[in-house]
Specification:
11 strands, single chain, seven-stranded mixed sheet, alpha/beta, 44% helix, 13 helices
Length: 337
């Protein structure tokens, strides 16, 4: 019997030029530059791409990055990542901007972390399109690039196969989302567990703008406890009133504090958890659709299908076909029965 051919490693390029942020490079390297195939994660080929490979790219703090491929390698990349900038008005080299324009015209996915949106904007690729950056840079991006539609409060967004993310930790969110989009929720969760971070966060960066008035420790603990409680009981028909009662708050007060703490409403958060639970079940089990819907808390297959269409632009059956883990034992499940 002929052995199965090994899938080609997903080709990832990080674009390097003087002024890029070391943190963003580190995030990209941690997500795509570590071999986790022994834990079931996909194989990646991460390359550091610059105008030439002979000169290290300087970064702040005495750090430098040694490129291993020139810009021509972008023709082979499945995904191109643009780190943020220490000085957000740093002009990118003209060959870099030209290479990004060509990559976009070929249909290659481009993703900019934090101030990397300024680089895409310099290339003219965000004109007439929606983009996000760190909340403290929103006005600067609008002033420097008035043809960009700057969205003020997302964690990350996509427009015409170009992704932009808010500041620092939102870059991690975007990177994991791109893994989830290409390889499924379980692959993203495997990488997130290795990084000791959440597979995904909900809400917007509005929750981080300025410094909200500190809430009492009791309220913070209550909200953390109610989220943990909800995760253990996703298969039950939870309501906002149920969660508020568990937190010892009125529904109105609970919804207000929950939204302030997470940037999203309790119902939206609960739906995100249900979708994630259904994704994992679809990837790792062969349970019938009505049972997947029940365990994830949707109540019916029809309801689950409607939410998949609205949030993921696909159906549960199509998702299972794309991301099923072949080695998953029949009927196995990480979700409470």
């Amino acid at each position: 019997m002929r052995p199965l051919a090994r899938a080609r490693a997903h080709r990832i390029a990080v674009v390097a030029f003087p002024g890029i942020r070391a943190f963003d490079v580190s995030v990209i390297t941690e997500v795509w530059g570590t071999d986790r195939t022994d834990r079931g994660a996909p194989a990646f080929e991460l390359r550091r791409v610059a105008t030439d490979t002979s000169t290290p790219v300087p970064m702040r703090g005495g750090l430098s990055l040694l490129p291993d491929r020139t810009l021509t390698w972008l023709d082979r990349a499945d995904l191109i990542l643009i780190p943020g900038l220490d000085d957000h008005l740093t002009p990118a080299p003209a060959p870099v901007l030209d290479a990004l324009r060509r990559a976009h015209s070929r249909g290659t996915t481009l993703a900019a972390l934090c101030g990397g949106a300024f680089t895409l904007a310099q290339a003219g690729l965000l004109d007439g399109r929606r983009a996000i950056t760190h909340w403290n840079l929103v006005d600067l991006l609008r002033a420097q690039h008035p043809h960009v539609t700057v969205v003020p409060d997302a964690l990350f967004i996509e427009d015409d196969n170009m992704w932009t993310a808010a500041g620092t930790a939102a870059g991690i969110d975007l990177c994991l989302h791109l893994v989830r989009r290409a390889h499924g929720a379980e692959a993203a969760a495997t990488i997130a567990r290795s990084m000791v971070t959440a597979p995904f966060r909900t809400g917007t960066q509005a929750q981080f703008i300025e410094h909200p008035t500190p809430r009492a420790d009791r309220e913070a603990d209550a909200l953390a406890d109610v989220r943990e409680h909800a995760m253990r009981h996703l298969h039950e028909p939870l309501t906002v009133a149920d969660l508020a009662a568990h937190a010892g708050m009125s529904p109105r007060s609970f919804a207000r504090h929950f939204t302030a703490a997470t940037g999203t409403t309790p119902l939206r958060w609960l739906l995100d958890q249900r979708i994630a639970a259904a994704q994992k079940l679809l990837e790792r089990t062969d349970l019938p659709m009505p049972e997947v819907a029940r365990r994830a808390g949707f109540g019916s297959e029809v309801t689950m299908r409607q939410h998949f269409a609205a949030r993921l632009a696909t159906s549960p059956r199509a998702y299972r076909a794309a991301f099923t883990t072949a080695s998953a034992p029949a009927g196995s499940s990480p979700i409470a029965r």
